[in-house]
Amino acid sequence: MAPRTKPVLAAAVLLLMAACGGSDTEATNDPGGGTSATVTTKNFAFSPTTIEAESGDTLAITVTNSDDVQHTFTIDDADIDVVVEPGASGETQVTVGETALAFRCRFHPQMTGTIGSGTSDAGDTGSKQGEGDDDLDY
């Protein structure tokens, strides 16, 4: 590789990494007194990748799939596993604990994120209530 191509390649890699980086959001308070967040799947990534909520909050999460393939919104520590079809949405609720909860897509291991009351390590302390097409076998 020519010496002049290396800086251009390095800049392209850094730009790509920045474009693929995650985003953070704070959960919003609903007028009815609850807390909610919306997560979108697009280009095999969750957006946002971090959801901040207060410990003890029950968080209503809507997951919208903007890809052409199925995704899941899975929180292992809270026994939540919502399958979301292409172009569809699914909903679930989780109680935010003292430690962060990791979420992921079972089908695409690179798709991950965190729900928590800070940036603590992912762990347990969530409770589940999910709905969606989670009866599908793969």
What does this 3D model show about the protein?
The chain is built from one helix and twelve strands, in the order αββββββββββββ. It has one helix at residues 5-19; strands at 24-26, 28-29, 35-41, 46-47, 50-52, 58-65, 71-75, 80-84, 89-95, 101-104, 112-116, 128-131. The strands form three sheets. Strands 2, 3, 4, 6, 9 and 12 form a six-stranded mixed beta sheet that branches. The radius of gyration is 17 Å and the shape is globular.
- What name does the CATH topology carry? Immunoglobulin-like
Count of domain modules = 1
Helix content: 10-25%
| Fourth CATH level, the homologous superfamily | Cupredoxins -  blue copper proteins
Which structural category do the helix and sheet elements fall into? Answer: mainly beta
Order of helices and strands: HEEEEEEEEEEEE
CATH class: Mainly Beta
Largest sheet: 6 strands, mixed
Mean pLDDT across residues: 75
Report the β-strand fraction as a percent range: 35-45%
For the terminal residues, how far apart are their CA atoms? 44 Å
How many strand elements? 12
Rg, rounded, reads 17 Å
State the helix count: 1
The assigned CATH architecture is: Sandwich
Query: Unreliable stretches, pLDDT < 50, 5 or more residues?
Result: 5-23, 119-138
Indicate the overall shape: globular
Q: What is the element layout, followed by pairings?
A:
Layout: H1 5-19, E1 24-26, E2 28-29, E3 35-41, E4 46-47, E5 50-52, E6 58-65, E7 71-75, E8 80-84, E9 89-95, E10 101-104, E11 112-116, E12 128-131
Parallel strand pairs: 1-5, 3-6, 5-11
Antiparallel strand pairs: 2-3, 3-4, 6-9, 7-8, 9-12, 10-11
